[in-house]
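Q: Here's a chain of 157 amino acids. Please give me its 3D structure as tokens.
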Amino acid sequence: MNAGRTEALPVSRETDRLAAPDDIRKIYNTAETIKRLSDRLIGVGPWGIGLDGMLAWIPGANVAYGLGAGGLLIALAIKAQAQPATIARMAAYIAIDNMTDAVPILGWAADTLFRGHLMAANALQKDIVKRHGPIEPDLPASPGGPRKVGGSSVAGR
């Protein structure tokens, strides 16, 4: 076993789901829910829009939602003991997503198209999979996923 990594958890015969600790599975699934609500509530092919994109056009609401959802993702990453590089990458995605809100019209349009919460949630989920083995989400994979990463299926993009 490598330092800082854990072995993949055994598969449960009753459910064919990995026996990840309940708190890690809940964190993974909460990240899945946040990315769906934020950036994939309505999907058309590879494109989608969520609450973040819809609220981008309402000054004040855009920042409140963006920081709230982003802050929750960071808190989940800390609770999951994600790698510092993962947390830093998540924070960068969330910061970029929220900085666009400062510029009326063009910034709001950029915020509608930039899927920062989805990218931050995917970074957290990949960190969890790397350390705990594959976890099947309670929800079906978000549109655009699942995809294979290192021989395991990871939800989202």
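Q: Can you summarize the key feature?
A: The chain has six helices and four strands.
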